[in-house]
Automatic annotation (TrEMBL), chain A:
Protein name: ABC transporter ATP-binding protein
InterPro entries: AAA+_ATPase, ABC_carbohydrate_import_ATPase, ABC_transporter-like_ATP-bd, ABC_transporter-like_CS, P-loop_NTPase
Keyword Repeat annotated: yes
CDD domains: ABC_Carb_Monos_I, ABC_Carb_Monos_II
Molecular functions per Gene Ontology: ATP binding
Keyword annotations of the record: ATP-binding, Nucleotide-binding, Repeat, Transport
Origin: domain of life: Bacteria
Composition bias type Low complexity, residue spans: 509-522
Compositional bias ranges of the Basic and acidic residues kind: 531-541
Keyword Nucleotide-binding: yes
Automatic annotation (TrEMBL), chain B:
Principal localisation: membrane
Full protein name: ABC transporter permease
Keyword Membrane attached: yes
Statement: the UniProt record of this protein carries the keyword Transmembrane helix: yes
InterPro entries reported for this sequence: ABC_transp_permease (IPR001851)
Location relative to the cell: Cell membrane
UniProt KW keywords: Cell membrane, Membrane, Transmembrane, Transmembrane helix
């Protein structure tokens, strides 16, 4: 056991865990990393911040052995190494937790962890003991026999971390780990990271959520345009705003709405909407009204029915009870396409799964979801010229950074993919837009732009259902806030007064469970709803 | 921009050529190991394969292979595995032959009737699998394989004397009533060859063109491709997945119904015990080899057909003709592996190129940002 | 794409199996070339689907060819068909033989009828023969036909006479018209010998599915069923599947009757006591005679029927233990068929 935990530590116990000197990595025609220096002390949490496309991923891939740098040296624990492959990196105790989880949904936690590392501790009792041991040691509550598909995002992430620890990592690279988490989950993650640190492990934390970086990191390195602009910054001596300016060199966007544009014309009305999965209601009697010019935010811990609610509104899943009305018309039985044609836009939570055809060119992605609408089609034919021209328009108007519209969607960075989706869903003047995590995994520049598009559309009378795990975004961008817990709307909050912390406790049901309304999103009109178990709250409009 | 679009294509072609070279090399090794001289063997195959009769027969076989592969590709394009093309075309050919023999119509109408019957039968037979999939969740792989067996049984039952079967005097064959000349399609003479090229080779070409146009230029084709590329994204984009499954199976089956037509209307004029079998399975391999692309499939069908053709000379030289099966299998296996590698390389290469172009453009566009 | 890989693996595995199967199928024809005295003629032979190694029809043709090679000192070339091939492939195969100077050329099986018609017209100076087909008529085509129903009649009588249970079985490979004529003769013979006999008729496969000629496992299962249902003698006309019948006979200790060649001689020892007789269809004789005629330039076009009269059809007496008590009766029936007293039905 102990041998796998202490690889490559012989040379010098006090040497930095990582020491990069003059790392340069060129891709044909471009320098992705230029002269990067980085020193990470052992047993610390070191954050790397930078905009998307700044070169963080390239640097991490270098560290993880996915490619070799053209120049420069990598030292791990004082020893100069050349990493040929991730297997090499793992053998040297470097593990990586990717932003997009790489787990098999239909396998259990145990099986996922052991998968591919069967040789370490077999697949039986020894592996199980090892996993439960690790989980206990680092304070991760996980049932090794649950199917991964039943797990929430936070737990999935812990599975990923355990996977890496199981393989004997002493240095963990976490790529945007908090992008998918709610504040409580972030807190838990940070708790886990502190435990790791206490055990002497080193964590390399990639993020652009600067408050979080400041909360957890011992040191911060800022990367911009392929090179380090600040190395080893002490978080105590810097503010989020200063960091952000180092990152982008420009003003930071703030999620906020100006004057209210809410009208009294309801666009989307849900009444008693109920969706069951395996007999259990996952959306439970939801009543909602969203008016023209209103952004209604739904706060909730992931997995509390938000996804099913969205699917029911989009017609991807037939509700078991209740109605969906759009502009006064009952659309409950309409297929997805007809809803879209009547002016429903959809920015999905997972743009790779639901929003894009990754291997298709941008202009074809422009057509997706709008393949019955102008300018994409003429009768039964795809109007290539029209679709291409309109894609050019979106690329220009929404500042999608791409060399052209014939590149595949997969070639774009996350932020640019998202801007393309936003542009697409805003075209054709929708009446109603579902924006699920619209700025997830997107750099600050794109984030500001997306917020601005939402504001502009709202001003023109768009009704928006906003779902986000970023509570600042939720509070700042919503006219009205609702909290969803176990499929029910359990509370509403006034975005003008609520704080992320109080909203967070309402989301977990902590406030309600404790029966202490004072702790809840206190100020807003109706204090937190009674515990989810009793009568569903009805008043919400 | 063209650079971005074209290079992966060039890479694909290169990959296919490499796979072929690899397969030929494997074959050469097997030949040598078996005590035959690879060079003279290949030379004999080439000589025989390029004789006028061989060319004509290669084209004929390729046209049926092509139709079979297109039928398979329609399903593949949306991740549906129509393994039942074989049963679909046999049943379709049998019933179409019976209809064509029973009803005499003026030329053109007669052929059209036979072809339409074949498409309907093939489509409906495949449609069963589609309906089973959307209503009962039965995997189309299983149901189409089962339908193959059922088709064999149905043909056996119907192809009896007193039902649809007729025995030719003096022959041990039993077949449907022979289609009158008004329902036949004349062959195209090939210079120097005894054999004629099937007139319906143009049907194969037309089907390829229609496939290309429908898949790439129509809304329906877009929905089809989108479903194949990402079923989740397609349904979020309003594609009715259930309807697409049924429609795609119907179309795949209708195309499958055409597979037997060149042979039926160009040479056999009856569906008998000696009607070619197993083309549907060959079609799967060819569709894979051709990457489900109409032009790629055309090359794949010709290659496959040429190998089949030239293998005939092997036993004449006392070399097991199954050597060619090794070549075909090696091509298929290596090409699938290589395509996947190319796909990944292409994707990565494109990401890098995009990053590069943006970086080149970057400094000018963002100079106000510089600290 | 991963699925694609899987599929291609399946395809490749399939190809490999085909290959190994054919490797087992046996060595090529020309191992015993031996002396290099001048060969007078070159004889070509094209098999039907199933090809060499079926221990029956195609093998019988091969035997005739081998015999011709030994005794007549001729050059031979035999080519096999590919499963699922089309008429054009068959036509090319014949063409290849004819154009390479093979004369005579023998086509084995009805499927060659159409292709042979075309090739025979193109090579008027080449002599062709086709086995089991009389639909092709040409000045240079000999149709080698067999009155297999007559032989089946005799073994049908033998079966009925040997049966104690009052039920005999017929195991057909595929329900083609040809095999049905075997069935018709067999049933008639059995009824003749014992009007109250029950004949249990089963086919292994039907219609265009020719697997029934090459599926011993299925043949065995069906034969077991027939034995269990009461039959105590079963006659097969199922090519290689007939080996399954013999296995079933060993297990059930019941009688079986072979077909085409004298299968008592080729069966494994354990099966021999149970093989009463075999219906002999002398494809080997027919092929040999035709080649001999060709070497002398005396082939005759048109139908040449092999039947009881000219010993092209017969029954085997290599297992005297089993056959001797009924032999007298069979010979009497044989005489009556030859002199026309009995007309054997064909279907």
């Amino acid at each position: 056991m102990s041998t796998t935990e202490r690889p490559a530590h012989e040379s010098d116990p006090h040497a930095p865990a990582i020491e990069l000197r003059g790392i340069t990595k060129r891709f044909p025609g471009v320098v992705a990393n230029r002269d990067i220096d980085l020193t990470v002390a052992a047993g610390t949490v070191h954050a790397i911040v930078g905009e998307n496309g700044a070169g963080k991923s390239t640097l991490m891939k270098t560290l993880y052995g996915m490619h070799r740098p053209d120049e420069g040296t990598v030292r791990l624990a004082g020893e100069e190494v050349v990493l040929h492959s991730p297997a090499d990196a793992i053998a040297r105790g470097v593990g990586m937790v990717h932003q997009h989880f790489m787990l098999a949904d239909n396998l259990t936690v145990l099986e996922n962890i052991v998968l591919g590392a069967e040789r370490l501790h077999g697949i039986g009792g020894k592996a199980r003991r090892r996993i439960t041991g690790l989980a206990e040691r680092f304070g991760m509550r996980l049932d090794p026999d649950r199917l991964v598909e039943e797990l929430g995002v936070g737990d999935r992430q812990r599975v990923e971390i355990l996977k890496v620890l199981y393989r004997g990592a002493r240095l963990l690279i976490l790529d945007e780990p908090t992008a998918v988490l709610v504040p409580q989950e972030v807190e838990e993650l940070f708790g886990n990271l502190r435990d790791l640190k206490r055990e002497g492990l080193t964590v390399l934390f990639i993020s652009h959520k600067l408050d979080e970086v400041l909360a957890i990191a011992d040191q911060i390195t800022v990367i911009r345009r392929g090179t380090t602009v600040a190395d080893g910054v002490d978080p105590a001596g810097v503010t989020a705003r200063e960091l952000a300016q180092l990152m982008v060199g420009s003003e930071l966007p703030v999620p906020e709405l100006r004057e209210s544009t809410v009208t009294d014309r309801p666009v989307l009305e849900l009444a008693g909407l109920t969706v069951r999965a395996g007999g259990r209601p996952v959306v439970d009697g939801v009543d909602l009204v969203i008016r023209a010019g209103e952004i209604l935010g739904i706060a909730g811990v992931e997995g509390n029915g938000q996804a099913e609610l969205v699917e029911a509104i989009m017609g991807l899943r037939a509700p078991d009870a209740g109605t969906v009305r759009l502009d006064g018309t009952d659309v409950t039985d309409w297929p997805t396409r007809r809803r879209r044609e009547s002016g429903v836009g959809f920015i999905p939570e997972d743009r790779h799964r639901h929003g894009l055809l990754l291997e298709s060119p941008l202009w074809e992605n422009r057509v997706l979801g709008h393949q019955t609408e102008k300018p994409n089609v003429k009768g039964p034919w795809i109007d290539r010229r029209g679709a291409r021209a309109d894609t050019e328009r979106i690329v220009a108007e929404y500042d999608v950074r791409t060399p052209g519209i014939d590149v595949t969607a997969a070639a774009l960075s996350g932020g640019n993919q998202q801007k393309l989706i936003v542009g697409r869903e805003m075209s054709g003047n929708p009446k109603f837009l579902i924006a699920a995590h619209p700025t997830r995994g997107v750099d600050v520049g794109a984030q500001a732009a997306i917020w601005e598009y939402l504001r502009a559309a709202r001003a023109e009378g768009l009704a928006v259902l906003l779902i986000s795990a970023d509570l600042d975004e939720l509070i700042g961008m919503s006219d009205t806030l609702r909290v969803i817990l176990r499929g029910r709307i359990v509370a509403e909050a006034d975005p003008a007064t609520v704080t992320p912390e109080s909203l967070g406790s309402a989301m977990t049901g902590a406030a309600a469970g404790a029966g202490a309304p004072a702790d809840a999103p206190a100020e807003p009109v109706p204090a937190p709803r009674p515990p989810a178990e009793d009568a569903a709250p009805k008043e919400d409009s | 921009m063209n650079r971005l679009k074209n290079s992966p294509l060039a890479l694909t072609v290169l990959a296919a050529v490499l796979a072929l070279v690899f397969a030929v090399a494997v074959t050469a090794v097997v030949l040598s190991a078996s005590g035959f001289d690879p060079l003279s063997t290949f030379q004999a195959m080439l000589d025989f394969g390029t004789k006028p009769d061989s060319v004509a027969n290669t084209l004929n076989r390729a046209s049926t292979y092509y139709l079979a592969a297109i039928a398979v590709a329609i399903g593949f394009r949306m991740n549906l595995f129509n393994i039942g093309v074989d049963g679909q075309y046999r049943l379709a050919a049998m019933l179409a032959a019976a209809a064509g023999g029973a009803i005499a119509l003026p030329p053109v109408l007669h052929q059209a009737m036979i072809i339409i019957v074949a498409m309907l039968v093939g489509g409906l037979w495949a449609g069963i699998a589609g309906v089973l999939k959307v209503t009962r969740g039965v995997s189309e792989v299983i149901s189409t394989i089962m339908l193959n067996f059922i088709a064999t049984g149905v043909i056996a039952v119907l192809l009896q004397k007193g039902r649809l079967g007729h025995q030719v005097a003096g022959s041990d064959n039993i077949g449907t009533k022979t289609i009158a000349p008004s329902g036949r399609v004349a062959g195209i003479p090939y210079p120097g060859a005894n054999l004629q090229v099937f007139g319906l080779i143009f049907l194969a070409v037309a089907v390829g063109v229609v496939f290309h146009v429908v898949v790439n230029r129509t809304r329906f084709g877009f929905d089809l491709r989108a479903t194949g590329l990402s079923a989740t994204a397609a349904s979020a984009g309003g594609v009715n997945a259930r309807r697409m499954v049924v429609t795609a199976m119907l179309l795949s089956g209708a195309a499958a119904g055409l597979i037997g037509m060149p042979q039926l209307l160009g040479a056999s004029y009856t569906y008998g015990l000696d009607f070619p079998t197993g083309l549907g399975f060959t079609g799967i391999g060819i569709a894979l080899l051709g990457r489900n692309h109409p032009v790629g499939i055309a090359f794949a069908a010709l290659l496959w057909s040429f190998l089949d053709q030239s293998s005939q000379i092997l036993q004449f030289n006392d070399i097991p003709k199954e050597i060619v099966a090794i070549t075909q299998a090696a091509v298929l296996l290596s090409v699938v592996v290589v395509y996947e590698i190319v796909r990944r390389l292409g994707l990565r290469w494109q990401q890098q190129t995009v990053a590069a172009e943006l970086a080149e453009r970057g400094p000018a566009g963002t100079k106000e940002v510089a600290a | 794409m991963r699925r694609a890989l899987k599929i291609s693996l399946v395809t490749v595995t399939g190809a490999a199996l085909t290959l190994s199967a054919s490797a087992c199928g046996g060595k090529k024809a020309d191992s015993g070339d031996g002396g290099d005295t001048k060969k007078t003629i070159k004889v070509g032979l094209a098999y039907d689907i199933g090809g060499r190694g079926d221990k029956s029809f195609n093998d019988a043709a091969y035997e005739g060819l081998q015999q011709a090679k030994k005794t007549l000192n001729v050059d031979v070339k035999d080519l096999e068909a590919t499963k699922g091939e089309s008429d054009n492939d068959k036509q090319q195969r014949l063409d290849l033989l004819a154009s390479s100077g093979y004369n005579p050329v023998v086509a084995v099986g009805f499927a060659y009828a159409g292709p042979l018609g075309k090739v025979a017209a193109k090579y008027p100076n080449t002599k062709f023969a086709i086995v089991d087909d009389s639909s092709v008529k040409a000045a240079n085509v000999t149709n080698l036909l067999f009155a297999a129903n007559q032989g089946s009649y005799l073994v049908g009588a033998a079966a009925a006479l040997k049966s104690k249970s009052g039920t005999v079985g017929f195991l057909g490979g595929v329900d083609t018209p040809l095999i049905k004529s075997f069935e018709a003769g067999y049933t008639a013979g059995a009824k003749k010998a014992n009007p109250k006999i029950k004949v249990d008729v089963k086919y292994i496969s039907r219609g265009t599915d020719f697997s029934g000629f090459s599926d011993p496992a299925k043949g065995k299962t069906i034969a077991e069923g027939q034995y269990d249902a009461g039959a105590d003698v079963i006659y097969h006309a199922a090519g290689a599947s007939g080996n399954g019948l013999f296995d079933a006979a060993i297990e059930k200790k019941k009688f079986a009757i072979g077909v085409d060649s004298d299968q008592y001689l080729t069966a494994k020892p354990a099966a021999q006591p149970y093989i009463v007789t075999s219906m002999l269809k002398r494809v080997d004789t027919a092929v040999f005679n035709f080649v001999e005629d060709a070497s002398k330039g005396t082939t005759k076009a048109g139908e040449q029927t092999f039947d009881l009269k000219n010993d092209g059809i017969g029954y085997a007496v290599s297992n005297p233990e089993a056959i001797k008590d009924v032999q007298a009766k069979l010979d009497e029936l044989k005489k009556q068929i030859i002199d026309g007293t009995i007309t054997v039905p064909n279907s």
